[in-house]
Specification:
The complex is a heterodimer of chains A (175) and B (649). Chain A has 11 helices and 1 strand. By secondary structure, chain A is mainly alpha-helical. With 649 residues, chain B is of the alpha/beta class. The chains are: A mainly alpha (175), B alpha/beta (649).
């Protein structure tokens, strides 16, 4: 059986980033993180956790507290959240995990950990104004439903994306 | 006179009636010789139940009563008082225990019913032969002894003294104050420990009703509730406290330096010393074990410089005898033996400290004047790891029990560390956090939220030195990974255990110990401050690990219990005690040897019973070869007839 070394490697506190937690908590919406006492209500009620057991809000909160910057931001499943808000509505300590996750996603995007489909979609919107690629197949389908021809107006979307700085986000390099 | 016994069978709801056919028991007992009345009722202990008994006594002219119900430890007194109110002697009522000894432990109804009948019949046989007795009256010495001068002992002594009873307070160390005087601040309010304790210590020293005896130990106790005789050994301090002016000239010339107990070895002290500045009594003492010699020829420098001539090398130990009516034991706790926790490097690495040492580091009066510095290099530690449950909750290797106070004091330590070292990081390894007290949970959360203390759920496997750091290997079971921390200091929350010498003290007092060596209470719920020995009460961490509010509450409870004895002119003792038939006694002394209460002695070649000390256990009676010693109302004849009844005879 293949051994997973990343699992057996201990967490070396001296190698972690002690400022990570305070950086996350600088954001107004993430200030409650310290109150987490790891009861696990968030994880227990999470529909994503049901399908992907690796996606574990309680564990993520603890990893942020410990300063595991690289580990947290590079995890693909922080992008899996379906924004149901169960976690924060059930939290006895009023930790707004959904907001914390948004902060984490923003940080991950800035540090080059955004998943490539997400970046591709952004570029798509900038170019065409819609999420899906505009091709003949789509045009035919629309025609069969008697829908009008899609007009390509991406100026507003492009402006918004540029203002938000989303155009500068690079996709995570495929390893 | 013809004996007329009434039998009353209780259902106890379904507690008894669910397993025992109470109607059948009632019917069978009605046929037993000597029984003239029998009836059953759902709750015999209720008012209507008791009235049934009173009415039957009057109507049927009963002179003996058997109640078949729960254990006599519960309702014997109730029913004895019931028959008393109907004009019978209380000792004409006996309890047949058909609940704890029958219905609760059996399932087969037929067999349980048969057993209940036998138990009831044998009790009838006993009560038929019961004498009418009156309680033994004893006088009361209206003063108390408090053993231990920590916060619990201080509180008990003050409560008693303020209720106008004289108190002898005995403390074995040179000053009162106990462990509480060593603490920095107290959870959850962060009051300065010394600031809240020293006023009480001063009150003790000035109180006209308190006779304070420090550096003294209880050597021997005899007597009984209301009338204890105590021998106290007053150890020589070699300094006359009345003459000592606390000028401190002696310590300047003393050539000896030994570890200071008050600072747990973090500092040194001289052979002549004052335990701490606010010590009560305020006097220096000479530690004879580290002093080079009592002979002035060996050293004697301190005596040379002592202007008021307070140093007296000829001081001798004294035995002081006191008479008291009640005793409160508040012998406190000590930390677990650190040497047994080798994996954490205590004793090997100077920067691995125990909880009390860290208290001294935090204390404004401590060795560093309240600065957090590493003992090894006096640098400020930036990463401190606190380890909880060191020795606690480890039945295989150490102590089985939870030491209770460590969760809270560790949260306090971590919090106070952050108050001192703002840019430092505190880590706490824990198994569970037990913060069940008023304001306690909020306090722990404050440490986490406001002071950013990182709690890691798991235990530490090893602490070892690595390039001026202490490497801590542990696990965070919530992440599911091993953790390695490069710490500057490690603080161990050592298990709390009974104070050194508690076992010996318990033996002298004839107080039982529990499985962990703490003093055992008489009942874990209903008699939590009483010991099994009448007239002796427990206070503070001597009984179980306790924090300050609990110790104070129990100390006041123990004082109130003691007062309930001391406020009486006379006490009454159960008269069911051993009785010697002088004509049969040969004076062999076997009963004297076996008596667990020292109630027997030989006088003029015959056994004599001290009726107040006798608890009526019957060991003497069972030992006597000539049946010359018998316990009233449970004589060999009665036991014989009870067995006969059980065998169906």
């Amino acid at each position: 059986m293949k051994q997973d070394n990343s699992q057996s490697e201990p967490i070396r506190i001296s190698k972690l980033d002690p400022k990570f937690k305070s950086e996350v908590m600088k954001h107004k919406d993430a200030q409650g993180l310290n109150a987490c006492f790891a009861c696990g209500t968030c994880t227990a009620g999470c529909p994503v956790h049901e399908i992907f057991p690796e996606y574990d809000p309680r564990k993520l909160a603890k990893m942020v507290k410990l300063g595991m910057r690289k580990e947290v931001l590079s995890i693909p499943y922080i992008w899996y959240c379906v924004t149901c808000h169960n976690c924060e509505q059930r939290c006895p300590q009023n930790v707004k995990f959904f907001n914390i996750l948004n902060v984490l996603k923003n940080m991950a995007a800035k540090e080059g950990y955004a998943p490539s489909p997400w970046v591709e979609q952004t570029q798509q919107i900038m170019q065409t104004g819609i999420v899906f690629p505009k091709d003949e197949e789509l045009a035919k389908k629309r025609e069969s439903f008697f829908l009008p021809v899609l007009k390509s107006d991406c100026k507003k979307a492009k402006k918004l994306i540029e203002l938000a700085g989303l155009d500068k986000i690079k996709a995570k390099k495929q390893s | 006179m013809k004996k007329r016994t009434g039998v009353f069978v209780c259902h106890c709801g379904i507690n008894i009636a669910g397993t025992v056919d109470v109607k059948k028991v009632t019917e069978e007992l009605s046929k037993h010789p000597g029984v003239v009345h029998s009836e059953d009722y759902i709750y015999m202990c209720s008012d209507p139940g008791q009235n049934l008994i009173i009415d039957a006594i009057k109507e049927k002219n009963l002179d003996k009563v058997v109640v078949a119900c729960c254990s006599p430890t519960l309702h014997e007194t109730t029913f004895r008082n019931t028959i008393k109110s109907a004009g019978l002697n209380t000792f004409q009522c006996e309890i047949a225990n058909i609940r704890e000894q029958c219905s609760w432990v059996h399932k087969d109804m037929e067999k349980a019913t048969e057993k209940a009948i036998k138990i009831s019949k044998s009790t009838v046989e006993r009560v038929l032969r019961n004498e009418s007795l009156d309680p033994i009256s004893i006088p009361v010495t209206r003063r108390a002894l408090v053993i231990g001068g920590g916060i619990a002992g201080i509180q008990s002594a003050l409560d008693l003294a303020n209720s106008d009873f004289e108190v002898v307070l005995v403390e074995r160390s040179p000053s009162i104050g106990g462990h509480m005087i060593q603490l920095s601040e107290t959870f959850p309010t962060l009051d300065c420990s010394q600031c809240i304790l020293t006023p009480k210590m001063v009150e003790v020293s000035k109180h006209p009703n308190i006779k304070l005896m420090t550096f003294s130990e209880v050597q021997e106790i005899s007597g009984y509730i209301g009338n204890f005789k105590v021998k106290i050994l007053k150890k020589p301090t070699y300094v006359d406290p009345d003459k000592c002016t606390l000028c401190d000239e002696c310590t300047k010339v003393c050539p000896v330096v030994v570890p200071n107990e008050f600072d747990l070895g973090l500092t040194g002290r001289r052979a002549i010393y004052i335990p701490f500045p606010q010590a009560i009594p305020a006097t220096y003492i000479l530690d004879i074990n580290s002093c080079p010699g009592l002979l002035p020829i060996a050293c004697g420098k301190c005596a040379d410089v002592c202007e008021p001539n307070a140093i007296d090398f000829d001081m001798k130990p004294e035995i002081i005898e006191e008479e008291v009516g009640a005793i409160i034991v508040a012998s406190g706790y000590d930390q677990y033996d650190k040497e047994l926790m080798a994996e954490y490097g205590y004793g090997k690495y100077p920067d691995v400290l125990d909880g009390l040492q860290f208290e001294r580091l935090l204390s404004a009066s401590g060795p560093t004047m309240g600065k957090i510095l590493r003992p090894s290099d006096h640098k400020e530690p930036k990463e401190v790891v606190f380890i909880q449950c060191v020795g606690s909750r480890d039945p295989e290797l150490h102590c089985e029990y939870c030491s209770k106070i460590c969760c809270m004091y560790t949260a306090k330590h971590a919090m106070l560390y952050k108050h001192h070292v703002h840019d430092g990081q505190a880590y706490v390894f824990y198994i569970d956090i037990r913060s069940g007290g008023k304001g306690y949970e909020e306090f722990v959360q404050r440490a986490v939220e406001e002071d950013g203390v990182l709690y890691l759920r798991g235990k530490v496997s090893k602490v070892f030195e690595d390039k001026e750091k202490l490497k801590v290997w542990g696990i965070d079971t919530l992440i599911g990974k091993d953790i390695e921390i490069d710490a500057d200091m490690v603080v161990l929350a050592m298990a709390t255990r009974p104070s050194n010498g508690a076992e010996e003290l318990a033996r002298k007092l004839k107080i039982a110990l529990d499985k962990d060596g703490f003093l055992a209470e008489a009942h874990p719920k209903l008699r939590p401050v009483e010991s099994v020995t009448s007239g002796m009460f427990l206070a503070g961490a001597a009984q179980a690990p306790k924090d300050i509010p609990e110790a104070v509450a129990q100390a006041s409870g123990a004082a109130a219990k003691a007062i309930s004895i001391l406020c009486q002119e006379r006490l009454y003792h159960a008269p069911t005690v051993a009785n010697v038939n002088i004509n049969l006694c040969t004076g062999c002394g076997m009963c004297v040897d076996v008596c667990p209460y020292d109630a027997l002695s030989l006088k003029n070649g015959k056994a004599e019973v001290n009726e107040v000390l006798c608890e009526g256990c019957g060991t003497c009676s069972a030992t006597c070869l000539r049946a010359a010693i018998q316990v009233k109302n449970i004589t060999p004849l009665q036991v014989h007839e009870m067995i006969n009844a059980c065998l169906g005879g």
